[in-house]
Amino acid sequence: MKKVCLLLICFVFLTFTACSQAKPLKESRFLLDTLVEITIYNKNSQDVMSELFDKIQAFENKFSKYAEDSEISQINNNAGTYVNVSEDTFELIEQSLYFSEISDGLFDISIGPLVDLWGINQENPRVPTQREIDLAKEKIGYRNISLNRENMSVSVAEGMSLDTGAIAKGFITDRLVSVLRERKIESALLNLGGNLYLYGTKPDGSDWTIGIRDPFGLQGDYMATVSLKDTSIVTSGIYERYFEADGKRYHHILNPKTGYPEDNELASVSIISPSSTMCDGLSTTCFLLGLGKGMELIESLENAEAIMITRDKKVYLSSGLKNGKIPFKLVDTNYTVVN
Fold it and tell me: What is the fold, at CATH topology level, of the domain defined by 61-156?
């Protein structure tokens, strides 16, 4: 008996009285294989809203491996040959390789063969045989992705398949933020399936208060809050996408070196940074690295903070949260903050 669960929203927006007074423009659409919700608090912002959703659709048409005509599909279908791509696709892959380097290959967008094999994001996921996993692993290796910036082209080795699911939403979010700045929007919330960007402040000038999802609770349950402005927050966790087989849960965060969903002490990792691309890439990277190495990486980087929750309900905070630079409040006494 298999059970598939898809939980799209990783955070909880707490109630804002001031926001409701601002009569926001709010719109939701199903894009990027998730629910995308945008809220803009400026008046006369319908044109901006339409522009944002048009951009999301255009990026999906470029980045989705499931769209036959996407640039990622063209790369995958022409392995061994350089394929000309847009600057957006080139930069997305280029930034992905950065996370591969700092994680020693644990973050790897050439993980497509494993993603397809497990099918955790599809209708009929299954536990592959060890032989199937070993064969898929042979097709993975970010060092076999070649970039030629001079003519904006990308090539992958035979058998490889790129999957941008671990970084595309963050990359797209940053592009949407650029539109908000260009259009002089003062206050907005971007939620790309749990990839959040708190743009500006609330209309009353105060910070946004975001609830951090309880990884062991129901959707809508939160165990802590953080106060943020002009920044992104993204979580990777064992509760987001998973299926169950023979009494065991298999989540979607696959380790390209073992071929299996990562099974370490972590239940979730939330990353806070002005760059949503950094949040997206680091949330997966740090989850795969584990608590010790993941937190060590965060402390070595500028403009990145982390909340790591272990399976025994302990909460570990990076220095910017410990020292109060980013206000953090534990609200669930079942959890313990480790100093």
Answer: T-fold (1.10.3980)
